[in-house]
Amino acid sequence: MLGVVQGLTEFLPISSSAHLRIVSGVFFGRDAGAAFTAVTQLGTEAAVLVYFARDIGHLLLTWLRGFRFPAVRATPDYRIAWLVIIGTIPIGVLGVLFEDEIQTAARNLWLIASTLVLFGLLLGLAERMGRQRLELQQMKAADGMLLGLAQAMALIPGVSRSGGTITAGLFLGFTRPAAVRYSFLLAIPAVVASGIFQIPDVFAGDGPTGAQMLVATVIAFAIGFASIAWLLRYVERHSVYLFVWYRVALGAVLFVALGAGWLAAV
């Protein structure tokens, strides 16, 4: 069940970590944990690597060639490769500094309900105000850093890694497809590093078995691959208001459930 949730929600701007936290609390009576989320994200990031294999390979090759050939350094692809590296720095630094808080206090459902609503409304505001004229090749160093900071906000469940990046991208004037594609690329280094780093933690205590983690990760990969294709087609033709309404509605339901005592916040 959690593998399905991870695959369905990882790439949509609705926060996979929030959904895993909520589903764990509702159906299993306890939090599966931040480490479980990080490791199952390896499955969805593997889907990104497969889906964008040609693009990723081209960016990597261009980046390496740039060290030898000065002319390559003037190309948009070389700049984008560096922007992915630069944009990864904020989430790496903040993830290390606030690791304990991310795994404990940040997973409180009152906080998650608040971030679902707040960042959902910000996403809607970005959709309404964004000029949506810039493409990925026009991204600058300052844009890459700002989008990296937006991604780092997703260390708090409920914000959404893709949601934060897409919101910032729209505010900066990028088109929806450009913001979505960059959010996929930007997530790869951070998610892979986080997942590998937290593999030992996920099996600590009474956590899931190796077989359970393998099943969840494989399912997340399969469903995540289909989700990528769907989202890219969707944002080319539609606004992101569907996700805004969903986030606000889910946050409201969560507030009611917590207030009525139907669900424990921790």
Ordered list of secondary-structure elements with their pairings:
Blueprint: H1 2-9, H2 16-28, H3 34-51, H4 53-66, H5 76-97, H6 99-103, H7 109-129, H8 141-152, H9 161-171, H10 176-197, H11 199-202, H12 210-237, H13 241-259
Function: Catalyzes the dephosphorylation of undecaprenyl diphosphate (UPP). Confers resistance to bacitracin.
Subcellular location: Cell membrane
Pfam family, one: BacA
Overall description:
Helices cover 74% and strands 0% of the residues. It contains 13 helices and no strands. It has helices at 2-9, 16-28, 34-51, 53-66, 76-97, 99-103, 109-129, 141-152, 161-171, 176-197, 199-202, 210-237, 241-259. The relative contact order is 0.20. It is found in: Cell membrane. Catalyzes the dephosphorylation of undecaprenyl diphosphate (UPP). Confers resistance to bacitracin. It catalyses: di-trans,octa-cis-undecaprenyl diphosphate + H2O = di-trans,octa-cis-undecaprenyl phosphate + phosphate + H(+). Its EC number is 3.6.1.27.
What key phrases describe this protein's structure?
13 helices, single chain, globular, 74% helix, 266 residues
Q: What is the 3D shape? A: globular
- How many strand units? 0
Number of helices: 13
Distance between the termini: 21 Å
Category by helix and strand content: mainly alpha
Give the SSE string. Answer: HHHHHHHHHHHHH
Q: Tell me, rounded to a whole number, the average pLDDT.
A: 89
Largest sheet: none
The parts where pLDDT drops under 50 for at least 5 residues are none
Classify the beta-strand content into a percent band: under 5%
Instruction: Please tell me how large the radius of gyration is.
Output: 18 Å
Share of helix among residues?
over 70%
